[in-house]
Amino acid sequence: MAKFTGVWGTFEYLDETTETIEKVRNEGVQPTVISPCPRHEIDHALGNPSTILPWIALCFAALGCFIGFSLPAWTASDWVLPVSGKPIVAIPPFTVIGFELTILFTAIHTLAGIALLGIIDSFRFPIPRGAKRYPRFQRDRFGIVVRCDEEKLEQFETILKKHGAEEVHIEK
């Protein structure tokens, strides 16, 4: 796991948290926020981060739909059972299988993508050991983690304190 260098602070109020996030983002750094509950204000302050998760879902949905239609078509053409002159390979009977495999592939691979992207992000954007073990983030406090070089530690410490951080921790 990568060594963390940066500043992290705890905030009691949501307004102070969002103002600090916006100020840190104006300095050119994307912070990580630890929150006891999801809040749309934090999402708005963090901007619109992009992810490849929708593309993962779309690709596996298309694959599931393709398999859902092609597998029964291949099976029906391999073991032909003519029934009163109806077409052997017809779309309506295969629609249910195609739909179900589309949903199945999308759900399974989206969950796998969430897990995989979460693991990758934990290595790309490490959180300091002290912040991971701080129990108040699970109850009533917000945390902002700023990864930066050692030259900018004092600058971000000042920003966090100026915007109402209760505690500020520096890790080198």
List the main descriptive attributes of the protein structure presented here.
single chain, alpha+beta, Alpha-Beta Plaits, 2 domains, 6 helices, 4 strands
SSE inventory with pairings:
Layout: E1 6-11, H1 14-26, E2 32-34, H2 40-46, H3 53-78, H4 91-124, H5 129-132, E3 142-147, H6 153-162, E4 167-171
Description:
This protein has 172 residues and is an alpha+beta fold. 55% of the residues lie in helices and 12% in strands. It has two domains: 88 residues, Alpha-Beta Plaits, CATH 3.30.70; 66 residues, no CATH class. The radius of gyration is 25 Å and the shape is rod-shaped.
What is the general shape? rod-shaped
Count of helical regions: 6
Query: What is the CATH level 1 assignment of the largest domain?
Result: Alpha Beta
User: Which CATH architecture of the largest domain would you pick?
Assistant: 2-Layer Sandwich
What is the tally of beta strands? Answer: 4
Largest sheet properties:
4 strands, antiparallel
How big is the Rg? 25 Å
Mean of all residue-level pLDDT scores: 90
Estimated share of beta-strand residues: 5-15%
Overall tally of domains: 2
Class by alpha and beta content: alpha+beta
Distance between the termini: 15 Å
Uncertain segments are: none
- Main-sheet strand order equals 2-3-1-4
Along the chain, the helix and strand elements come as: EHEHHHHEHE
What fold name goes in the CATH topology slot of the largest domain? Alpha-Beta Plaits
Q: What portion of residues is helical?
A: 40-55%
